[in-house]
Amino acid sequence: MTRPLPAPARPPAAPGAAAVVWRGSDRVSAPRGPGLAALERLELLGRSAGPVLLHRDRVVFLLAPGTAEPVPELLAWLGWGPELRLPVESAAAHPGNPRVPEPRTSDWLRTGAARPVLDLRSPDLLCLLDALADACARDRLGLPPAGTREGQEACARS
């Protein structure tokens, strides 16, 4: 179920803008495979994912400040409760925390806007969370990703 990594996007043009976007943003992340599948699904649906980074073995979607805290409740509301133990993690921004990774240790997959726009009022946030949870569940079950080119090819072969 591996697929080539999308071409990295260029980081924001202004010097230091990447660090500002990264450090001032809440984030939600998933393992690399499901995260890339969710990103592809959102792009095929024409939905915004905002700025997206690949950091170590996780795909990190940057969110507007104040968005990360209700993510577990939103996932449960969408039917992806904690009993499923999906590897979707959310973290609030901690601008002064030295443990927050620097953006130079990450690869930009999508730069999005100058600052993250996915917040609690955005319907695209629910699409992102649903796509991430679905991709993680399918990965755990060994199923092809839904709504992606790979998933469509697997259905055509069946």
Notes on the structure:
Helices cover 35% and strands 15% of the residues. A five-stranded antiparallel sheet has the order 4-1-3-2-5. The chain is built from five helices and five strands. By secondary structure, it is an alpha+beta fold. α2 packs across α4 (123-141). The radius of gyration is 15 Å and the shape is globular.
Which secondary structure elements does this structure contain, and how are they paired or packed?
Elements: H1 17-23, E1 26-31, H2 32-44, E2 52-55, E3 58-63, H3 71-77, E4 89-91, E5 107-110, H4 123-141, H5 149-157
Antiparallel strand pairs: 1-3, 1-4, 2-3, 2-5
Helix pairs in contact: 2-4
Taken in chain order, the helices and strands follow as HEHEEHEEHH
Task: Report the structural category.
Answer: alpha+beta
Low-confidence stretches: 1-20, 154-158
Sketch the major β-sheet: 5 strands, antiparallel
In short, what is this structure?
By secondary structure, this protein is an alpha+beta fold.
List keywords for this structure.
alpha+beta; five-stranded antiparallel β-sheet; 5 helices; 35% helix
